[in-house]
Amino acid sequence: MKSLLATAALALGLGPCGIAHAQDWPRQPIKIVANFAPGGAADQLARVIGAPLHEALGQPVLVENRGGAGGNLGGDFVAKSPADGYTFLMSSGGMVSINPHIYAKMPFDPAKDLVPVASVARVPFYLVVRADSPVKDFKGLVADLKANPGKRSFGSPGNGSSPHLAAEMMTGQTGTTAIHVPYRGAAPALTDLLGGQIDFLFDPGISIQHVRTGKLRMLAVASLKRAPQMPEVPTLDELGLKGFDADAVFGLYAPAGTRPAVIQRINAEVNRALALPAVRATIETLGNVPEPLTPAAFGDKGAADFKRLGAVIRERGIRAD
Fold it and tell me: 3-state DSSP helix/strand/coil percent for the chain, to nearest 5?
């Protein structure tokens, strides 16, 4: 039996030390750093997945918010944390696929200093306006933007964030302009939309409750597929912006050097949790779609988005402040 276990471990690249570590870990609380403000998608998904991880691993799973610099502050903290399996990052894939294009100097290299662990959710972005807006549909929004060039504004969780790119892609494809107002997270941006400080928003899902209570109007989904939560809302692809896809995948990353045994264990437990009806329902309530992937597939998604979104960033001349 021991020889079989050793053979299996070697096949996974773990070795005898990996076996011992997997058996000993975890022995203390685990921290998930959400690299955006409280109330946003990263924060909410960290808390959703933290509960089943606590049950599976038998240790508390603590969520800590370190927002700022488009997710770089939290990413840098985790990248420079000990690779001991006790600190993880919950982030939008944008930190890996977008930030290296827009920051002249990154405090760390996401592709080298972090390793993908487990995808948690695909996050569609929902185009919303206030319910009292004269804009009734996407066609009306485009007409309004064309009639008022540079006079309308949109918010985002930060400069270069995935929702920011979604708006830049939309205005670029429709030949319109609008003023970008960056915030330190999706929740503050939503608050200002509700308060009338901005005119529209690509939101990661926290607006849905306000759409259902009549405070906001949803015009479109920035995905290739309609969102299961709002099946009546068309995609921008359907509305004429062919191939429009601004989805982001949120998930867990670890400091480079974290043992493969730990990464595989977290990935397996996250994927197991995503199959639970209660967890799936909670993620869908947030406006997201559960997205279980292997670490390799999660990494491949980030690499593909790095190339795809890099082209948009260069075309639109987006830079961090």
Answer: 45, 20, 35
